[in-house]
C-alpha cells in the first residue's frame, strides 16, 4: 500500500529521494548516482504493481502464487537430485568397468 504513491508519480519520488540521499552522502556525484538508483527503484515498484494488477485481473491470488512458488522449488530440488543420481550412476558404471 505504501508503494502506490511511487507507482502513480512514475518514479519521480524515487528520483528525488535518491538524489537527496546521494547528495548528502557523496556530494554532486552522489546526487547523480542517487537519482539514477532512485529512478530504477521507482520503475521497479511501478512494474511490480502493474504485474500484480494484471495477475489480480486474471484471478491469480496470493495462494496460487505460493503454490506455484512451492512447485517451482520442488522442481528445482528434483532437478538437483536427478543430477546426483546421474553422477552416482556414472561413478557406479566406471567402478563396474574396473571389476570386469
Helix count?
3
Please report the total strand number as a whole number.
Answer: 0
* Overall shape: elongated
Cα-to-Cα separation, first versus last residue? 68 Å
Instruction: Estimate the strand proportion.
Output: under 5%
Mean pLDDT score, rounded?
75
List the keywords.
mainly alpha; 100 residues; single chain; disordered N terminus
Give a topology summary.
Layout (H helix, E strand, L loop, with lengths): L3 H5 L3 H46 L4 H38 L1
Describe the structure.
The chain is mainly α and about 100 residues long. The chain contains 3 helices and no strands. The chain has helices spanning about 5-10, 10-55, 60-100. Mean pLDDT is about 75; it is low at about 1-10.
Short précis:
The chain is mainly alpha-helical and 100 residues long. The chain has helices spanning 4-8, 12-57, 62-99. The protein is elongated.
Amino acid at each position: 500500500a505504501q508503494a502506490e504513491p511511487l507507482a502513480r508519480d512514475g518514479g519521480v519520488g524515487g528520483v528525488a529521494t535518491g538524489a537527496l540521499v546521494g547528495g548528502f552522502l557523496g556530494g554532486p556525484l552522489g546526487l547523480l548516482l542517487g537519482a539514477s538508483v532512485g529512478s530504477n527503484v521507482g520503475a521497479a515498484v511501478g512494474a511490480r504493481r502493474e504485474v500484480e494488477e494484471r495477475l489480480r485481473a486474471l484471478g491469480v491470488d496470493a495462494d496460487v502464487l505460493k503454490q506455484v512458488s512451492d512447485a517451482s522449488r520442488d522442481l528445482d530440488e528434483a532437478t538437483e537430485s536427478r543430477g546426483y543420481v546421474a553422477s552416482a550412476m556414472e561413478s557406479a558404471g566406471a567402478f563396474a568397468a574396473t571389476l570386469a
